[in-house]
Amino acid sequence: MTDTDTNADIAGLSYEQAREELVAVVAQLEAGGASLEQSLALWERGEALAARCEAWLEGARERLDAARNRAGRGEAPEGAAGD
User: Fold this and answer.
1) What single-letter DSSP state applies at residue 13?
2) Are 14 and 55 in contact, with CB atoms under 8 Å apart?
3) Which long-range contacts link 19-26 to residues 24+ away (Cβ below 8 Å)?
4) How far apart are CA 63 and CA 56, in angstroms?
5) Contact in structure between 29 and 71 (CB atoms under 8 Å)
6) Are 31 and 68 in contact (CB under 8 A)?
7) I need a labelling partner for 30 at 20 to 30 A (CA). Which of 1, 23, 62, 69 fits?
8) What's the pLDDT score for residue 73?
9) ∠ at Cα 41 (25, 1), nearest 5°?
10) Could you tell me where the beta strands, DSSP code E, fall in the chain?
11) What is the pTM of this model?
12) Which residues contact residue 33 at a Cβ distance below 8 angstroms, ignoring those fewer than 6 apart?
């Protein structure tokens, strides 16, 4: 199984789920006691979780920017009656 296969489930996580798991991964790494191989696997999962969180945040920024732009032009919000 490759690292990509191991972390494939991350793509389906919500922001909150990914963030919560990332916090747990960091705690495990900080606690020590894992083998080098386990530590590397945790590090790689943490990187993938951080990327997932960043993707969620970037998507939220884009949605906010789009809503602000529509509001600035006096357009109805997405999903409002008439869309």
Assistant:
1) -
2) no
3) 19/49, 19/53, 21/45, 21/49, 22/46, 22/49, 22/50, 22/53, 25/49
4) 11
5) no
6) no
7) 1
8) 84
9) 130
10) none
11) 0.75
12) none
